[in-house]
User: Fold ATP-binding cassette domain-containing protein from Sellimonas intestinalis.
Amino acid sequence: MNAISVKNLNKVFTYYEKKEGFQHSLKNLLVRKQKTKEAVKNISFDIDSGDIIGFLGPNGAGKTTTLKMLSGILYPTSGEVHVLGYCPWKRQKEFKMKYSMVLGQKSQLWPDLPASETFRLNQYIYEVDERKCKMLLDELTEYLDVKHLLNVQVRRLSLGERMKLELIASLIHSPQLIFLDEPSIGLDLVSQKKIRSFIRYWNEQYKTTVMITSHYMKDIEDLCERVIVINGGEKLYDGSLSDVNYMFKDIKIVNLELSSEIDDMKLGKFGVITKKDGLNCTMEVNRENLHEFIGYVTQKLNIKDISISDIPVEKGIELLYR
Ligand SMILES: Nc1ncnc2c1ncn2[C@@H]1O[C@H](COP(=O)(O)OP(=O)(O)OP(=O)(O)O)[C@@H](O)[C@H]1O
Assistant:
């Protein structure tokens, strides 16, 4: 069954240009120049219940705008969307009870209160039974190891600690669907890993549908089999993460450790030098040039070491963005 169904979704923002300075501010009172920005262009996709989908794209691609439309925070300019069977921007109460949204860059916890107070507030808003809420909080705080933080003022917490509590706050009403917009932004590697394992655990335990955006490819590799990639508001790719690399199977990554300096021009004719650090060099070489390149390197150069590999997923996604 589809948890999300999106057809020909568009969002055009209109805004007024505002140049810097007092003079321009005065001018703006009389004449304002209207501008438009097509943030989302004709996007369509379906997401099955219980899946974890990676929603990827470079900065400004239109990810947050799309998630905001799917959660009913923004009206689209045109298009059709069904989320859990509801039209999100009608903001029906039953719909609001069934989904949750976590914005890594915005907190839903009250900064001057301990997180336990926000949890209680959410419990009342979502009308969650006292016993059920307690059981859920026990499970969540135990898994994320934050029991000792429940009564600490939120603004005194570290980013990683706060993020764990944000996730808990968003799950108090056991939503069927969670939108996670960069849930691991700014976190250290250990906290990122914990958040990932928690998302995986929660999805397996409760079959919750998850749509996640992240600029950390490890999040996506660990959690998502399927990714939807957008850029400039348009959908570029919708399919399995492993197939992204298949699309770039003709590009090989060659790492060279040289014994002496070599002119970039000489190497450059076989492929693209992506990194050079002293005598270490990384190149992208097309498969059809590989044979000739290896011949050149082994016969004409003094090399200490060489390794050849397929492009990593992260690189595949980067090439897709390009
Ligand atoms: N309220 C707005 N008015 C005008 N333009 C906007 C508005 N909100 C977003 N945009 C523009 O729409 C585009 C898409 O923004 P969006 O926040 O959806 O990108 P994103 O993919 O989430 O990026 P990031 O990874 O940096 O968070 C950007 O060019 C942004 O400047």
In short: The pocket of adenosine-5'-triphosphate is lined by residues 13, 15, 37, 39, 57, 59-65 (CB under 6 Å).
